[in-house]
Amino acid sequence: MGNSIYGVAISGLNAAQVALNTTSHNIVNANTEGYNRQQIKQSATTPAPTGGGFLGRGVQINTISRVYDEFVGRQVQTAKAQDGYLTSQFSHLSDLDNLLADPSAGFSPSLQDFFTGVQTVANSPKDAAARQSLLGLAESMVTKLRTVNERMAVLREDVNTEIVSSVGNINSITSQIAELNDQIILATGAGGGNPPNDLLDKRDQLVKDLNGYVKSTVIKQSDGSYNVFIGNGQNLVVGNMAFNLGAIASPDDPSRLEVAYQQFGATVIIPDNLITGGSLGGVLEFRTKTLDDAQNSLGRIAVALAQTVNDQHRKGQDLNGQFGGNFFKFPVEQVNAQHNLGANARTMTAELTSDQPFIESDFNVAYDGTNYTITRLTDGQTNTVTPASILAAGGHVAFGVRFQLSGNLAAGENFGVSFRPAASHVIPSAKNTGDAALQVSIANIGVLSSSDYEFIVDKVDDATTVGVREDSYRIVRKSDGMTTNINGTQWANPPIVVDGLSFRLNSGNFVAGDRFTIQPTRDFAENMSVMITDTAKLAAAAPIRTSSDVATIVTSLGGSNTGTGTITNITESMVSSGGSAAKKVEVVFTGPGTYDIRDAGTGTVLAGNQPYVPGGNITYNGWTVQVAGAPAAGDRFIIEPRRNTGSGTISAGVVSSVPVNINLKDPVAIQFVSSTSYQLVDPTNGNVLQGPQLYTAGQDISFNGWTVQLSGVPANGDSFIIEANAGGTADARNMLAIGKLQTMNTMAGGTSNFQGTYSKMVADVGVKTNQVKINQEAQAALLQQAETKQQSTSGVNLDEEAANLLIFQQAYQAASRTIQIAQRAFEEVLNIGR
Fold this sequence. Notes:
By secondary structure, the chain is α+β, with helices and mostly antiparallel strands.
């Protein structure tokens, strides 16, 4: 009996001791992260049969288990992944939102200041101080653009840094999980199948930490190990093996770090959209869906502003009487190509010969049937070249540009050359096997998007297949996957223009599979500056002027002339100025070699004793005539400027093309041959430039690159002059036109202006930041709820554990007392024997 009592008491003592140890373990780990409360599971020892029934033999410890709900655990892991994702996004979005919303760093105030400076020059076009102030304000605006772009670039570097850090932490966690898998299997085997609770807690905490970086899927194996997967099935942990992630430079953009999966010596980039949840998923989505778009949008505003101002400025005239050049400086396309030019459908290319991709002036190439004349429009400098030179394989270099034609133009034809903005980045993939140099230019600002693009070579042409083009290409808009397919015939007949971007192969050869990443506007502001340094080169004036106060020159012979002289009007019409220019005068010969110019009404001599050269020009009050033959003394020739008699008026006129037409400033008269039709004539010699055209009030009349409108009812014989704006230093029409660009909808398909587009970008970032903030706060609450729920079942309650201590202490004391009783009983038995 003593042995039986001893056995029962000792089993109880052992059970109570294990319970006390377990409770103590719970208490000291109450604040240990990831610790789950442990409890003993005990049962009665198998009883011994006796004649009077089964006799209990005490208690046995079955196992020590942890209180852990796998379903709740998965809820916590999922909530942790989403919280990490939103917290990371909100942190980066806040940085960007603060940048754009900061009035001292933002772009909006400097944009307004620039156009205020434009208006100041428009008010005082000859004022050197106003001109210098405008250049300073332009520099300040460009600096603001560059500063915002640079700070966005810093945010991009921060993303790269976080990717490296997150990948390192993920690799550290997965290697620990793999190691714990091995330890758990060994410990479970050594423990007779009992779970190593503390190791399990540590592994589950690591899985939770992993979800803070990236959403992961855990599959528990039959041996108790975890297999961990991310993305679309990339296994980070399989048993006791861990597979690393890497942060590597993208082959499509070396400045952009991508997450790659590394296994058995192979490295495969995981697309950003497959990495979801966790801080890594959040930072990747911030970069792809917010930062890329914001920086591209900023660049789109910069290129739109620079190009539209440049285009308008080149339509103007500076204080030197020359055409305006580019106001802003930025990289332009290396090669400007124009196709199907003129009657002979020629191709003309102009290629920069300098390594510096900047240009100030437009050019004009004209053919007179013998030679070509290349004109630099900003200063009127010309270069004459033979057809053989410009048609040669190497073309002809003038003004730092190599000009080349595929064949002769028709005599009298001329065409302008204007270099367009180059796409900011055209990046060949590191995996390309061809040596092609793809050029992408910005051809149409109005339809330009803020997306990146990818140019893909699917197939190259087989040169041995005559007459059949087999090459094919794709242009993919990465923001929405929109794809434009280009076949060989289309590629062979440029230009290829997609979303305002022009694509061209400058040199080298494509190989099937070659890819190019195009970032049309990103970092455009980084390479943008003010081109003009001389205030006199600000083209505030318009290069042409018009007049309705026009006099038509009519000449006739005096009634009693005795000589053989004849008169021809050289000036057909002129600005009459409403005064003496419209005066009727007589050329009266005082001898065979001299003449007077007299007022036909009063006979007053206006210019006396002028020398006469047969066929020479006689000029007065803005008109020119010629007298030929042999006039006799006393012969008279009448010159009568007849002013317009109708009610027609002419607009100020605008320059309607860029580059400007080389003949823009040539004087042209719109001469009415009836009240409903007109012709264009050269007012200096009367040559008809364009035959009779029907007239409708308000219609556009265009010629030589200008456009005017006439209104009212012109009379037969009325003329209207379009001529060079000589001495127009007080004119500010072109500067006013630049000022109008501030509110003109030149972007987003004609639906938005510079300020509107920038405001939308700022608003989009602000709205997204606020949305993510709200979602993050809600998700933080959900995570707390999930953790609270987990703690309510698995966490350590110190009050409960303290109560358990008392219970197990009493059990221990009771078992000890039982042993004492057993010992006394045994001693009594021994005493009987004595």
